[in-house]
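Q: Hi! New to this. If I give you a protein sequence and the SMILES for adenosine-5'-triphosphate, can you show me the bound structure?
A: Yes, paste them in.
Q: Okay, here:
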Amino acid sequence: MTKLTETKAEPHEDRGVYAHPFFQNLIKRSQRYLSLGYPVHFTGPTGIGKTTLALHIAKSRKRPVVLISGNKSLSNAELIGAFKGYNRKKVNDNYVRTVRKIEENVTEGWVSGRLYEAVKNGYTVVYDEFTRSQPEVNNLFLSVLEEKILPLYGTKRKDSHIRVHPDFSIIFTSNPAEYVGVYQTQDALLDRMISLPLKSLDQEAEVGIVSERTNIDQDKAKAIVGFVHRVKDLCKNRDSSLSLRASIMIADVAERYQLPIDGDDKEFQELCLDITYFTLDLCTDDQEEDLQNKIIEACKKV
Ligand SMILES: Nc1ncnc2c1ncn2[C@@H]1O[C@H](COP(=O)(O)OP(=O)(O)OP(=O)(O)O)[C@@H](O)[C@H]1O
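A: Thanks. Here is the predicted structure of the protein with adenosine-5'-triphosphate bound:
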């Protein structure tokens, strides 16, 4: 079970970035809804920071955090639990020398699922990319959210369900429905959560995150974030999936290899091209050379 009492995201998580008014307000509202028992759902494009924000808020609840990652093969057994393997107990009673008694007892071993543990003990769940799981599996959450019970379907357990602990809370994240590998979500499930769309990050907040993650100074981070935003505007056919991750990668490589963050530097230009060209090629009609020239032009402004 992925139980994050000390989440791995800790080094990246930064109170400075989340102190930005853009986040402060969002965090305050989310905490309010969660404390009243309402599930919160962050939805938005890839790389905008939904998971990191969800983990940050989850940790602020001061309960153990369980991370569940949505995927096509996630099963009820993983969420609820299942009987797996056998426990065998053998008692060899030879107390009276002439009498030997052997008693053997075989029972199936129960392994609790991640949702079961969280519901039972009142943990905070971050269900990341939940729309990548099959809708049938997500039906479990309808009962958890509405009836406040976790049904123990098909588990061979005597009890038909367990009650949801009053401290249990859950944060969902998802990418929009048009993303590849994403299932349509049941309206009934969406209706039971408070969905907060994260469409775009405030540029200043992005600069803060890039600077925090890579230890480059704010001016350099600003120049890199500015470059990524300029090249995103080259997209004509559809929204570019270039995200905060592109800015972080450029800053990280430049910082670690001491490349000058300077648009006239050849190596920095190559870095800008490598990180952005392929993604931009998917959303423009430009020929290869034209697109490369446009990226270099945008990079030269750094
Ligand atoms: N507040 C933050 N502080 C530091 N790094 C952050 C912060 N927010 C996001 N990041 C970094 O930005 C990148 C994208 O963040 P994250 O994975 O949370 O995005 P996401 O919206 O969940 O993306 P996806 O939809 O692809 O899962 C990650 O490398 C993450 O570590």
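A: The CA atoms of residues 165 and 279 lie 44 Å apart. Let me know if you'd like me to explain how to read the tokens.
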